[in-house]
Amino acid sequence: xxxxxxxxxxxxxxxxxxxxxxxxxxxDYTSDQEVRWCPGCGDYAVLAAVRSFLPALGLRRENxxxxxxxxxxxxxxxxxxxxxxxxxxxxxxxxxxxxATTRPDLSVWVVTGDGDALSIxxxxxxxxxxxxxxxxxxxxxxxxxxxxxxxxxxxxxxxxITKSTPMGSLDFPFNPVSLALGAEATFVARALxxxxxxxxxxxxAAAEHRGTALVEIYQNCPIFxxxxxxxxxxxxxxxxxxxxxxxxxxxxxxxxxxxxxxRDGDTGGLRVAKVAEVGEDAVIVHDANAEDxxxxxxxxxxxxxxxxxxxxGVFRSVSRPTYDDLARAQVQQAVEARPGDLQALLRxxxxxxxxx
Amino acid sequence: xxxxxxxxxxxRETDVHKLDRVVIRFAxxxxxxxxxxxxxxxxxxxxxGNDLATLPNFPAEIRAPQGTLPGVxxxxxxxxxxxxxxxxxxxDVLVAMNPAALKSNIGDLPHGGILIVNxxxxxxxxxxxxxxxANPLEDGSLAPYQVHQVAMATLTKGALEETGLSKKDAERAxxxxxxxxxSWMYHRPTEGTExxxxxxxxxxxxxxxxxxxxxxxGWNYGETTESFAVTYEVAPAKLPPGTYRQITGNxxxxxxxxxxxxxxxxxxxxxxxxxxxxxxxxxELAKHKNFGVxxxxxxxxIAGIGAALGASFGGALGVTSTSGPGVALKSETIGLAVMTxxxxxxxxxxxxxxxxxxxxxxxxxxxxxxMFGRNGEAPVPIVAPCSPGxxxxxxLEAVRIALTYRTPVLLLSDGSIANGSxxxxxxxxxxxxxxxPTFASEPNAPDGSGEFxxxxxxxxxxxxxxxxxxxxxxxxRIGGLEKAxxxxxxxxxxxxxxxxxxxxxxxxxxxxVPDVVVDDPTADARVLVVGWGSTFxxxxxxxxxxxxxxxRIAHAxxxxxxxxxxxxxxxxxxxxxxLVPELNLGQLAMLLRSKYLVDAVSYTKVAGLPFKAEELQxxxxxxxxxxxxx
Lengths: 356, 630
Ligand code: SF4
What we know:
The complex is a heterodimer.
Chain A: H1 43-53, E1 64-68, E2 83-86, H2 92-102, E3 107-113, H3 114-120, H4 122-131, E4 135-141, H5 176-182, E5 187-192, H6 196-208, E6 213-218, H7 237-241, E7 242-244, E8 252-253, E9 259-263, E10 270-274, H8 275-278, H9 294-300, E11 310-317, H10 323-337, H11 342-347, E12 351-354
Parallel strand pairs in A: 1-2, 1-3, 3-4, 4-6, 5-6, 7-11
Antiparallel strand pairs in A: 5-11, 8-9, 9-10
Chain B: E1 15-19, E2 21-29, H1 34-48, E3 51-57, E4 72-80, E5 93-96, H2 99-105, E6 114-118, H3 124-129, E7 146-150, H4 152-159, H5 167-172, H6 174-185, H7 191-200, H8 205-224, E8 230-234, E9 242-248, H9 249-264, E10 268-272, H10 279-286, E11 293-297, H11 301-313, E12 317-322, H12 324-340, E13 344-350, H13 367-372, E14 382-383, H14 390-405, E15 408-414, H15 415-419, E16 421-425, E17 477-479, H16 494-509, E18 518-519, E19 527-532, H17 536-548, E20 554-558, E21 560-562, H18 568-573, E22 577-582, H19 587-596, E23 601-604, H20 613-629
Parallel strand pairs in B: 1-8, 2-5, 5-6, 6-7, 10-11, 10-12, 12-13, 13-15, 14-15, 19-20, 19-22, 22-23
Antiparallel strand pairs in B: 2-4, 3-4, 9-16, 14-21, 18-20
Helix pairs in contact in B: 1-6, 4-6, 4-8, 6-8, 7-8, 9-10, 9-14, 11-12, 17-20
Iron/sulfur cluster binds near residues 142 and 223 of chain A.
């Protein structure tokens, strides 16, 4: 079978979603429900960032939908004054796929966690990414199961002592960004709950991307995995460890951009080097729009579990037709070619008549 | 008869016997095209105006080893000059294309039956493959039958010699030779088949012509050789007037979904994962995008129903189709649909279970799964078609219930309905029910607060409002956690939960469904047979036979399994004894006994095959005798 080029124009992630002239504030996106996360939970910061960045999009509130699975972060929709569904464990991407496919006038967001998205819902996450449905997936990664009171998760480090692993966990963790890139994602980013500015930038870029956008958010769970990302917040350590990606700019970090990311001739991958030693020209320039995901993948392999270093920002943002646009185009094409005639369908071509 | 097969040979005089009904079974290797052959004969019978019913039977393996017993595929059809109810118990005519087909089917052919054998396949090797020590064509073991030995492959190859087709390709057309021969024997019209072959092989005209030549060769073989002395006529049936077509259950079900979308004026999203024997529903629906139907082939069963529910949340008609193992995977999402009170259609084409079970065989053993297969108190309405054509009506009925009461509905078809076919009186679209739902458009809070309460119920139906994203001012959040009555916020309040559980149950219990109609022609039967789903035909036919012998018996057939029709209790109580035949271990009987405290007696079979009318006839007769003795 041959692929059909539907000649779709390039669309933005929010095209087709009705806008409003009305001035909105974070308060307009705040529901009347009391937020019930533990004090100090990183989820609060993400909620605040989402509530305050949405008004800038100028969308009609009723055309925004948050769909979540199960877990601490999945309570998120209740706190947003938009439409929402708190669904079942791991299945939010599937539910959101059906909604987004039938409703191009909605901005659809999925809120999920490391257990929800990568354990029980791994299959749906992977397939949403490959299909490139117009969904924004916020993956709150706290590297622990919070709601069920502290078992290790698919992003916990090997050897983690928890209630379910008193002698240490045995399985090797996922790197969600690497996973998404391997699953043909068109938009992949990572941000920290504590860095409002970068989180907002990344959320905005995700919203405007047409297709599935995966945003991994490092989120602290002070109750069951406190301080998992503290090293990224400590002055001194922060600068030394975080590599913020900016499209079109050399990948440099550290005080005065002391370090840079360069190609590693031995492995074919990337490594961190002192710019003074390798020279400025050796530092790679980040191209989030590169069709080939190899470099984005190599960036995702720098550090990871030990957070040394930690790459943040938009790894990849490329344009590819979305599943939902293509599905609607097929329906439209079929309707235009031959509008449905129900009586003719029921008759078919092989009939006979019994006289009365 | 004004039928010609394009032959100039003058018609040979044969004895023409008039019959009221005939059962033919085509059996061969799964590569022999028996399903196509059966289908075509069915179309010819339909075009001629006979009533008919069919029973395809094929192996689960796509290509089981050639010539072996597990590789046998068969197609049985029953056609008559009156309205028949089943595909027939035993064939009157068996067409066996190879030794395996003969061995696995001969036991069903009654003594005196007609056996047509393709002798070319009866080689030493093929006989040994299926454990025949001597050639049954020679050892006298087939003496009780009227045997016609025809070298079909050789004759077909001979007929196609001029075409330049390879021997192998030519031999492939031997099924059309068989069809031609049978068409001649039963005076069937042939134009339809020739037209069909030209269309089917439109891109390969030489193959089309070869098949047509083979078909004519089969016809002419009957006409010119002396080996067939008798032909048979089955006159058209007197069916209710109107325009008919032939339809399978899966097609009718798919059409029902398309029609429901049109009558509800809603886009349809079908979220489905391929599974036997339900996949043809997906295939059929995928062809009808021009009716606003989107088919989403999901990554798994759970994603299929998830997408359907997501679409329902957005105001579309969400549909998922599967078989029993798929329902098991979907149960959690069905529970979510119960909790969120959104319309959703879940089609279960039942097959033999448990686990992978018998994927291509029929069974009715998912009734209790449909009824109870979820955590918590999660009532779901259940409907079941009683014949292939009825699958169309039942789909519309399922959608009516789902949209009116905002609930998932389980539609239980089964393998024999899915693949079986019958003549279908084509409905007039204008007479189909109007299913257009109303969507919430403004705040509804009874306290005048101007809020929207997503769990405020319609006093009549107990349905909650369907407020779809994009509706200004009605933003709300739903989900799997228990919700407060009315306002719909999360609630852990014990009294609220108790009330909500009872409300959800009351909503389903209160669904209005038509009364069950009892077939009791003499109106004085003391014994009632209650069935559901695909057993309608076999039970009905058995009842006729029992009555023909002067006994009295009543038959009630349920299309609504939850809630039951309101008159069912009084119907059950008005008979001395109740018998419930099912293709499971007594699931409906269990429900009837617990709900109505009736001493319903089960008759069960789980062989992967439908009931035979003959079998039920003797069960009913024994039961009636037992009832008399009491
Ligand atoms: S358990 Fe952890 S993740 Fe969950 S709400 Fe409490 S702090 Fe947040």
